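agent> call fold_tool(seq_1)
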Amino acid sequence: MRRIILLAIVGLVTCSCDQTSTSRAGNFSLQPIPGSITYGGQPRMKLTKSPIGSQVPHHFTDQWGDDVYETYIIQPDRSLRLVDRRIIQQPF
């Protein structure tokens, strides 16, 4: 009986359908992952017509088949800063 309860607790802690990582505190910075716009550096194009501070959404599928939704904010130097990432895990 203890094993079943322990497995249930471990399963609840480690298994979730929606993982959210945010950067609201300012001291925690999200790192780009393969598929992110800024993975490998800033994009070569400059977003000259977009207003500074505007949000840029980005959606892609990662290497494990999970849906990844990211949000970037355009900085004054026209670079992109990753501020939010949501990973929707696909069922097995």
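agent> call fold_tool(seq_2)
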Amino acid sequence: MKAFIISDSHGLESELEKVIHRHREEVDILIHCGDSELEEGHSALKGVNVVKGNCDFGSDFPDDLFEKVQGVGIYVTHGHLYNVKMTHVPLSYRAEEKAAQIACFGHSHVAGAFVENGVIYINPGSIRLPRNREEKTYCICEYHKTKATVTYYDYDGKIVTDMVYHFEVN
């Protein structure tokens, strides 16, 4: 299973389309973790699973979603409803409730991935306003049987070499 994950594009349109188009044919699912600031049905979000962020006013996007892709449960939320800037505990409870193998979130604009209690947590960062790094990032997660790799890319599609994570999963 291969998932494209992006978040916090904050109104970018052509830039978002460009990044998604670059990977659309090589992944099984496209995910936007909120704060797109675009309307549902916008061409930049065609075929993308999108959740509502705290800056997505008036949107009809759901607060969260759960998808099974090739048997892998993926939970997606923006993170503001789970206080992810302070702790990951409420998010971990929700991921556990959903029986997710992967939990995707944004909100903090801080790119990173980690495993806790067998769940891979992924924040793709931001392609508009990154925090803690210069690179404007998004990522791709490849999940196969007992191994997962989360690879971060900068806006131009170059791998961010110090942000490639390898995980052993159950």
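agent> summarizing second result for user.
The longest strand covers residues 159-168. Residues 2-168 form a domain with the Purple Acid Phosphatase; chain A, domain 2 fold (CATH 3.60.21.10).
agent> awaiting next instruction.
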